[in-house]
């Protein structure tokens, strides 16, 4: 379980790009990839305002050249906004390959907003049917490099921290159990940072809850193996996982079928059968818009059969 601690929960969903003030909400196909609900907010107002104030004193000869540079910057800002809007629309429609090709044009950009989206798109490409293992691995590591660069460009970007955690878990699958477990600490750190920067991002809260759940349910013999590798391996509790799942539901009610399922499973693990039944029933009745929703429905039905 430790070897697959994080990303297995995120087939294609939540994702949620989210870290802004205003946005649109829609459903795509299964991705989490991190969230079936995508939020996007693009705010360049402060950047534009900078062009309206504080013009330095220039000679008559220099002003025209300066004006051209400023105009170019405005055009660039507008272009950025349009590309991001187009990218988020393609993501909401699950147009994975078109989105990847669009963002690939900006792989050398210094804009974190382009880079973390490209990292996400690279990862999404690996989940397409008939993807060869070699190409899948290349895309995983490619995506990780993009999101590393995104963080270098803007360490205060919540989405970059979230996707760094996701991509780090992905590449860890190719680097062995020791690296995978060691990365778990880093993954948690970046998820916590993502939440600190954007407390309203339900998907980051859900993922951190899943991280806690995975280590809480780690069998004793796997804990022993982990203890051999690390003097203090990652640990958590069902109570801690529950708090993150509940918080995710609080900031965005009913946003994700998997969160309802995990709430049900967590309550059952805590021997609170009545609450477990409640959330499993909600997961079962959740509208199945995506493949993952259907998988959640199936698991919820199977668990309910065992309990009633």
UniProtKB/TrEMBL annotation:
GO terms for molecular function: microtubule binding. One of its GO terms (cellular component) is mitotic spindle pole. It comes from the Eukaryota. It holds the Pfam family RMD1-3. Keywords: Cytoplasm, Cytoskeleton, Repeat, TPR repeat. SUPFAM superfamilies: TPR-like (SSF48452). Transmembrane segments: none annotated. It is found in: Cytoplasm, Cytoskeleton. Interacts with microtubules. PANTHER family: REGULATOR OF MICROTUBULE DYNAMICS PROTEIN, REGULATOR OF MICROTUBULE DYNAMICS PROTEIN 1. Belongs to the RMDN family. This is Regulator of microtubule dynamics protein 1. It comes from Dissostichus eleginoides (Patagonian toothfish). The lineage of its organism: Eukaryota, Metazoa, Chordata, Craniata, Vertebrata.
């Amino acid at each position: 379980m430790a070897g697959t601690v994080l990303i297995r929960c995120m087939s294609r969903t939540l994702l949620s790009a989210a870290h802004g003030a205003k946005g649109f909400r829609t459903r795509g196909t299964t991705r989490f990839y991190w969230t079936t609900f995508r939020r996007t907010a693009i705010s360049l107002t402060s950047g534009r305002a900078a062009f309206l104030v504080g013009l330095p004193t220039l000679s008559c000869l220099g002003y025209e050249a300066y004006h051209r540079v400023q105009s170019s910057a405005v055009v660039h800002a507008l272009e950025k906004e349009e590309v991001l809007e187009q990218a988020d629309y393609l993501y909401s429609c699950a147009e994975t390959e078109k989105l990847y090709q669009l963002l690939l044009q900006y792989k050398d950009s210094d804009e974190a907003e382009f880079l973390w989206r490209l990292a996400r798109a690279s990862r999404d490409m690996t989940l397409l049917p008939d993807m060869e293992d070699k190409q899948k691995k290349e895309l995983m590591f490619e995506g990780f490099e993009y999101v590393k660069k995104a963080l270098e460009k803007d360490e205060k970007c919540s989405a970059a921290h979230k996707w760094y955690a996701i991509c780090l878990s992905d590449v860890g699958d190719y680097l062995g159990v020791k690296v995978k477990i060691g990365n778990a600490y880093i993954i948690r750190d970046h998820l916590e940072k993502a939440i600190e920067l954007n407390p309203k991002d339900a998907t980051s809260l859900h993922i951190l809850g899943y991280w806690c759940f995975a280590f809480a349910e780690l069998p004793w013999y796997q804990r022993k193996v982990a203890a051999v590798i690390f003097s203090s391996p990652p640990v958590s509790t069902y109570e801690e996982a529950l708090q993150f799942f509940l918080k995710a539901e609080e900031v965005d009610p009913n946003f994700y079928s998997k969160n309802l399922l995990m709430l049900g499973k967590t309550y059952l693990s805590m021997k609170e059968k009545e609450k477990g039944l409640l959330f499993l029933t909600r997961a079962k009745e959740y509208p199945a818009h995506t493949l993952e929703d259907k998988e959640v429905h199936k698991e919820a039905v199977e668990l309910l059969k065992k309990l009633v």
